[in-house]
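debug: dumping io for the single-chain case to check the tokenizer round-trip. Nothing else runs in this session.
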Amino acid sequence: MKVKVICILILMLLIGTNVVAITSTKTILNNKSTTIIQITNNEILDSGNSLIQTDAGTYILAWFSESSGNRDIWISKSSDTINWDNPIQVTVDSESDYNPSITEANSNHLLIGFTSNRPGAAWAYLTRSTDNGNSWSTPIPFEPVSMTEVSGSPCIFKSQDGTLYFSRHEVAAGKSYTLINKSTDNGYNWINKVKISNHNYVLHSEIKEYDGALYMACDSAQGMNPEPFDLYFYVSYDNGDTWAEISTLESNYHDRSPSFIKTEEGLFIVVWSSEDRDASGTKNLYYSISDNFIDWTPTEQLMVSPSYNDVGPHLLKNNDDEIYICWVSDRDGDYEIYITELSNFIESDLDCMGNLSWTNVKPGETVTDSFDVTNIGKVGSLLNWEIKSYPEDWGDWSFNPESGTLSEGDTVTINVEVVAPDDPNKEFSGKIKVVNSDNSTDFCEIDVNLTTSKNKAFNIFLLDFFKTRPNLFPILQKLLQQLGFGL
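debug: decoded output
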């Protein structure tokens, strides 16, 4: 039984796609005319993507590739997620190296954990670079190799205090575990080996830190392969010494490779790939949202992609708090790695309510009113809105606020102030146009109407004088009323 279980996990850890390195990048557009960058562009597949941004601002992508004839680890760098440098080969071996996870230990000091078949079975390995990824050390097993065990699919992560965490998944004596060690000396020595779960055949996990707590998401088979995979969520409040499983997302499908992020609004977003949800043989990305890592919204498809498959998502919040997603897709005919901002798929939707109408306004008088702008888009979406146009050919306009950002379901009231034209007894009209700053086709218009009174500005003082003294000059007042001066 022990040998059978180990062989099954070895086969599962080897599941993936053949890959090659970058030859060029390509920009494509989705149906919102939003830029998606194709990072790799080869005739052979690319996969196993892991993305970081260093403290200095450089994006570094790690993945595995068969461009040298064997599966090896590669990296590429970018300053803007659009233009990527030529790839650097990290590992060279006749056995397969795959599923890398990259982190920055400190300035110019990088670590990559990965799975390798060098011992003759899957095992977790570690390599480092002290020159920002330009050269790499000879990989070493993360811990002594045991031919009666299988270890792989690592995740390496650095917390805010500089502590490194290294998770991997191990099968030993017919049982499966998720294990974590930590290091306080840039990964040279690892301590506190902690077992945090015993779910079957975990193939992917990810660790993040928010507000002093460590969070982890992982996938796990419900039973023997090919039983469906589910998602499991853990939290640690004591720097990784103990962990608690706090929630799950279960289905009858193969839900794999979860990646999560916490937004500035305090929402956790988890994205994963799922097989056969839409149709047999299809692979697409899905997401769910939670404000506590426990209660998750109903699953929604992230990308509507009927003609191609999307797998292997990885989320990154950059140094400017922008959230990027990189993933693997066959939309180019073979599996390549792509990147874009997550908000391009969790779409906002702008809605306005109200209209502005003023009547019998004295020429030159200042009037005020308001209308509402709401984000009625998907849960987790952010709406960046702005006042795009208004009737500039009449009146003197001001808006407070003139632009802003709204989370899903949030509303802002726009206070409008306008100084009426000096023309008496005249009607003015137009529209205020509010647009989604990220999608010009998403906009709304507020109707505006203003009618000035017959009173000319220079008569206002005199007319007010008569209005406050109705018993003076009755004949003159009667005459002024008949002339339409509104007394």
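debug: round-trip ok. Residues 1-33 have pLDDT under 50 and may be disordered.
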